[in-house]
């Protein structure tokens, strides 16, 4: 509880050992993180919808039913188990109530370090040499 845990910017992954299995059988591929889901229509600001949206990212552990308040933005918070070997999702495209209108909801991961914004994977960051932005920025 309270993770994700870090040591020198590296994620520490813990897994509860069950039964009499061997260490090699532990997967050690999941970490938990709170995700803020932004750009939600008002109809989506509920615990049930938060759990549904969280399942699109990973395994839902907890939904914060108290809606967070940003500067001019309301958002849901969902604690999700994330597979560290897969790229992180940055947005969700959802058709609310099947009306044919796609809503793009932005995801912000809390307390995740060393995330590459280029490939979306954990474990390294995109560093620009000399502090200058390259072409396309």
UniProtKB/TrEMBL annotation:
It comes from the Eukaryota. Residues 82-125 form the Zinc knuckle CX2CX4HX4C domain. InterPro entries: At4g02000-like, Zn_knuckle_CX2CX4HX4C. It holds the Pfam family zf-CCHC_4. This is Zinc knuckle CX2CX4HX4C domain-containing protein.
């Amino acid at each position: 509880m309270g993770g994700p845990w870090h040591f020198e910017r590296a994620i520490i992954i813990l897994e509860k050992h069950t039964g009499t299995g061997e260490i090699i059988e532990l997967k050690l591929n999941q970490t938990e993180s709170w995700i803020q889901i932004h750009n939600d229509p008002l109809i989506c600001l509920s615990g049930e919808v938060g759990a549904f949206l969280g399942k699109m990212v990973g395994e839902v552990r907890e939904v914060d039913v108290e809606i967070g308040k940003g500067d001019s933005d309301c958002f849901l918070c969902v604690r999700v188990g994330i597979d560290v070997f897969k790229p992180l999702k940055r947005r969700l495209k959802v058709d609310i109530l099947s009306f044919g209108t796609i809503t793009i909801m932005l995801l912000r991961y809390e307390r995740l370090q060393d995330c590459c914004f280029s490939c979306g994977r954990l474990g390294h960051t995109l560093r620009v040499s000399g502090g200058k932005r390259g072409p396309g920025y």
